[in-house]
TrEMBL record, chain A:
It comes from Tianweitania populi. The chain crosses the membrane at residues 27-49, 92-116, 128-147, 201-223, 257-277. Keywords: Cell membrane, Membrane, Transmembrane, Transmembrane helix, Transport. Coiled coil: none annotated. This is Peptide ABC transporter permease. One of its GO terms (cellular component) is plasma membrane. Belongs to the binding-protein-dependent transport system permease family. It is a multi-pass membrane protein. One of its GO terms (biological process) is transmembrane transport. CDD domains: TM_PBP2.
UniProtKB/TrEMBL annotation, chain B:
This is Glutathione import ATP-binding protein GsiA. Pfam families: ABC_tran (PF00005), oligo_HPY (PF08352). InterPro entries: AAA+_ATPase, ABC_transp_ATP-bind, ABC_transporter-like_ATP-bd, ABC_transporter-like_CS, Oligopep_ABC_C, P-loop_NTPase. CDD domains: ABC_NikE_OppD_transporters. The keyword Membrane applies. Keywords: ATP-binding, Cell inner membrane, Cell membrane, Hydrolase, Membrane, Nucleotide-binding, Repeat, Translocase, Transport. PROSITE patterns: ABC_TRANSPORTER_1, ABC_TRANSPORTER_2. It comes from Tianweitania populi.
Length: 289, 611
């Protein structure tokens, strides 16, 4: 029919420039390494820990770091290195599962509000506003206290408290993607709403949500530590960095290592997720291309 | 020969990328004499803007490498210190850009922005600067200048903002004005006024102008000399009359052949293809004499009938979100389209032409009126019952970069309508996609690529392939070729004409470009402030326009012929009126009178009496 148009040269893979940008960002790579380091510790905890984290010993109460106990022992004589190692499982689990719960509740409501608009949007948005009016941690503590003290309930509480953040972010993303011409084009073709949402809206709205999820894992880890510190999270004798800090607070002058190690662990893993999230945001941000 | 004000020699600009230095401008040399206008014309990616930015040294020194010499009034700009360059910028060379919407600070009144320039560059006092600002605003013909000084930029239309930008550029009495696509974002009547203004000011001030544009019509209107660029090289450089009269390079000839010329269709009743000339050899691939289109059969019932269509948008304000006004975007619009016919809907921004198109494909619900597709009123149908009708009704958007889902492969994009409507068995979708790609002139092997790997014209072909995949009766083409380069535009239009012939498609061709409309349409409807003011056969509208607005629109179209430059009547400074009305406004009942068979004109009031 018409003369064939020459093809563009050198097809570029989608997202390759984002990867390149991420790798160039030293802070982001450090974040990824930190996160990867703690993930490995959590997975291989039984191999890494030289002692049983539950084994008490009344002859080794509150011992300073030594060759026998690398990081020292706590008030029941348990090995702190083993407890920190197993504590990584609690923290990462709490961070990951809470954020999954938050995504599960927040994203669908955000999509519905952003895509359909109108009164549905008004109702959902007011609920989001009301939930965001309460500080994240306060809401999480209140919910955890209401549900009862356990790690599972703590994760549900943290997830529900973080859900409005995702709902609002998703709503905004969906609203901006919805007004794109290709979405209007999909409507003109006669596609149904679920297909438009799954094929046209979600793939193009998902990047900032991933970034926010990474950053929220850091916040959720702190929240879990805080809840455990208050006795609302991981229950003794199971190890958790937050509950370790809680029990160490009475011995802070006699046995400072009891608070230093869990504090350092929380600091490093949260730093890791924050750097990773910031790096992802910079790499994905289309304005920077 | 007079000495040149600006002399560019062997300019070479390279950008540092991930794979070494990529030169984008090669060995460009030209002179601009004092008081002359030189136009650099080229399509996107030709390096015309980069050349102008290199002259101003506005390219980032970290990423761009500039070689060669740029002599301005005896100084070599490439070796000048940064401080020296800052003195040149603004004082000696000024620049205006394409986007008048973003180049003014939205949080300062235009008076203060103008005064600020005068105070910093000339050390004027506040009072002197304000007086000078009024004088400058008068110079660029802004009506009631003194009152306008206290306005913020958002109160001004695009044309008025561009005037303010020109006033700023002129405030330091530059010797050279660089204008980078200054009228591209403006409506055609406003464009004509701005071109007039630049020409008048140049004569009065005796300055030189370097005019960057993609529009051959604009070049013919304004330039003394014309430089044609392609892929970063100058392919032709000469007096404008010579470039237009006897183009030497095949590319220049190809470019000129693709430029739609108003009036070229006199005596032809059906749409005609553009001539396509091979850029390298200069041999015509498609001859313009090929008459492919047919006259639609007047006996067949219309595919689409629109009756008294209206669309209002409420403007809400205050705490209680009360309706405080209404945008009467479309008012009482009626027309028919037959099988195989192209009806063009023309008008300037805000006239309601796009809203009309969007209402027909139900992207927006009309406030009143009927839209009948094959006799059935589709306004009354709900979303689900309308869905099956969508097969017969498709839309092509303006922006080829926004109208394809970036996360879907091209083949999937094209297959989408067929899968949604289950028109053919799933097993044969792949073969059909290949067939469609071939039909729009693309290699079927491209179906596994993503949209961002394609150029604008190719993407528009993909959109067309998708639109025709269900065998529609009517396609609404909303500025479908407006964003494309001129030679690509011609190819895409030729493709649309071929498809119309083969499939009996009816087009609603929405456009602001009168010259393109003349080429493609059987009938034309002119819209102004939401209403159709004139509708009729293409030959009647272009040959015998009746309504004052149609006449104004036609006279404003730049003519790609430098010899006819002076024959245009003086244009008054005008702005497009706003269709925002009070809540209780009821549109007056206006009558369309038949002047000849099928040619209807709305009666016009006193507001048009002085042109």
């Amino acid at each position: 029919m018409s003369n064939a148009v020459p093809l563009p040269a050198a097809p570029k893979r989608l997202g390759s420039s984002a990867v390149r940008k991420f790798v160039k960002n030293r802070a982001a790579v450090l974040g990824a390494i930190l996160v990867g380091f703690f993930v490995l510790i959590a997975i291989f905890a039984p191999v890494i820990a030289t002692e049983d984290p539950f084994k008490t010993s009344f002859t080794a109460v509150r011992k300073a770091p030594s060759a026998a106990h690398w990081l020292g022992t706590d008030e029941l004589g348990r090995d702190l290195f083993a407890r920190i190692t197993y504590g990584a499982r609690t923290s990462l689990l709490a961070g990951g599962v809470s954020v999954l719960i938050a995504l599960l509740f927040g994203v669908p409501f955000g999509i519905i509000a952003g895509y359909f608009g109108g009164w549905i949007d008004s109702v959902i948005s007011r609920v989001i506003d009301a939930m965001l009016a309460i500080p994240f941690l306060i809401l999480a503590i209140a919910l955890a206290a209401f549900l009862g003290a356990s790690l599972t309930n703590a994760m549900i509480a943290i997830g529900l408290s973080a859900a409005p953040i995702f709902a609002r972010l998703t709503r905004g993303q969906v609203m901006s993607v919805r007004s794109e011409e290709y979405v209007e084009g999909a409507r003109v073709i006669g596609l149904r709403h679920p297909r438009i949402i799954l094929r046209y809206i979600v793939p193009n709205a998902v990047a900032p949500i991933i970034v926010q999820a990474t950053l929220t894992i850091a916040a959720a880890i702190i929240a879990e530590a805080s809840l455990s510190f208050l006795g609302l999270g991981q229950q003794p004798p199971n190890p958790s960095w937050g509950s370790m800090l809680n029990s160490s607070k009475n011995f802070i002058s006699q046995a400072p290592w009891m608070s230093i190690w869990p504090g350092t662990a929380i600091f490093l893993v949260v730093l890791g997720f924050n750097l990773l999230g910031d790096g992802l945001r910079d790499a994905i941000d289309p304005r920077e291309h | 020969m007079t000495t040149a004000l600006l002399s560019v020699e062997n300019l070479r600009v390279s950008f540092k990328g991930s794979d070494g230095c990529a030169p984008v401008v090669h060995d460009v040399s030209f002179d601009i004499e004092a008081g002359k206008t030189v136009a650099i014309v080229g399509e996107s990616g030709s390096g015309k803007s980069v050349t102008s930015l290199a002259i101003m040294r506005l390219l980032q020194s970290g990423s761009a490498k500039i070689e060669g010499t740029i002599r301005f009034a005896g100084q070599d700009l490439t070796t000048l210190s940064d401080a020296g360059m800052r003195r040149i910028r603004g004082n000696e060379i000024s620049m205006i850009f394409q986007e008048p919407m973003t180049s003014l600070n939205p949080s300062m009144t235009i008076g203060r922005q103008l005064a600020e320039v005068l105070i910093t560059h000339h050390g004027m006092s506040q009072r002197q600067a304000e007086a000078e600002a009024v004088r400058l605003m008068d110079r660029v013909r802004i009506p009631s200048a003194a009152a306008r000084l206290k306005d913020y930029p958002h109160r001004l239309s695009g044309g008025m903002r561009q005037r303010v930008m020109i006033a700023m550029a002129l405030s330091c009495k530059p010797k050279l004005l660089i204008a980078d696509e200054p009228t591209t974002a403006l409506d055609v009547t406003i464009q004509a006024q701005i071109l007039d203004l630049i020409r008048d000011l140049q004569r009065e001030e005796g300055m030189s102008v370097l005019f960057i544009t993609h529009d051959m019509g604009v070049v013919a209107e304004i330039a003394d000399r014309t430089i044609v660029m392609l892929h970063g090289r100058i392919v032709e450089n000469g007096a404008t009359e010579q470039i237009f009269g006897a183009p030497q390079h095949p590319y220049t000839r190809a470019l000129l052949a693709a430029v739609p010329r108003l009036g070229s269709m006199a005596g032809v009743s059906v749409p005609k293809k553009f001539e396509e000339i091979d850029r390298a050899t200069g041999i015509a691939i498609v001859k313009s004499e090929e008459v492919t289109a047919k006259q639609p059969d007047p006996q067949t019932p219309p595919v689409l009938e629109v009756r008294n269509l209206s669309k209002y948008f409420d403007i809400r304000s205050g705490v209680l979100r009360k309706v405080s006004g209404r945008v009467h975007a479309v008012e009482n619009v009626s027309f028919d389209i037959r099988e195989g016919e192209t009806l063009a809907l023309v008008g300037e921004s805000g006239c309601g032409k796009s809203t009309t198109g969007r209402a027909i494909v139900r992207l927006t619900d009309p406030s009143g009126g009927e839209i009948r597709l094959n006799g059935e009123d589709i306004v009354k149908l709900d979303e689900n019952s309308f869905r099956s009708h969508r097969q017969r009704l498709q839309l092509i958007f303006q922006d080829p970069f926004a109208s394809l889902n970036p996360s879907m492969r091209v083949g999937e994009c094209i297959a989408e309508p067929m899968l949604a409507h289950d028109t053919i068995p799933r097993a044969s979708v792949r073969a059909r996609v290949a067939e469609l790609l071939q039909q729009v002139g693309l290699d079927p092997a491209t179906r596994d690529r993503f949209p961002h790997e394609f150029s604008g014209g190719q993407r528009q072909r993909i959109s067309i392939a998708r639109a025709i995949s269900l065998g529609p009766k009517l396609i609404v083409a909303d500025e479908a070729v407006s964003a494309l380069d001129v030679s690509i535009k011609a190819q895409v239009i030729n493709l649309m004409l071929d498809l119309q012939r083969d499939m009996g498609l009816a087009f609603l061709f929405i456009s602001h470009d009168m010259a393109v409309v003349e080429r493609v349409s059987h009938r034309v409807a002119v819209m102004y402030l939401g209403e159709i003011v004139e509708i009729g056969n293409r030959a009647d509208i272009f040959g015998n326009p009746q309504h004052p607005y149609t006449k104004r629109l036609l006279s404003a179209v730049p003519v790609p012929d430098p010899a006819r430059r002076t024959s245009r009547p003086e244009l008054k400074v005008s702005e497009l009126k706003s269709p925002v009305r009070p809540v209780d406004y009821v549109a007056p009942h206006r009558v369309l009178q038949e002047v000849s068979q099928g040619h209807h004109v709305q009666e016009w009031g006193a507001e048009w009496s002085n042109g």
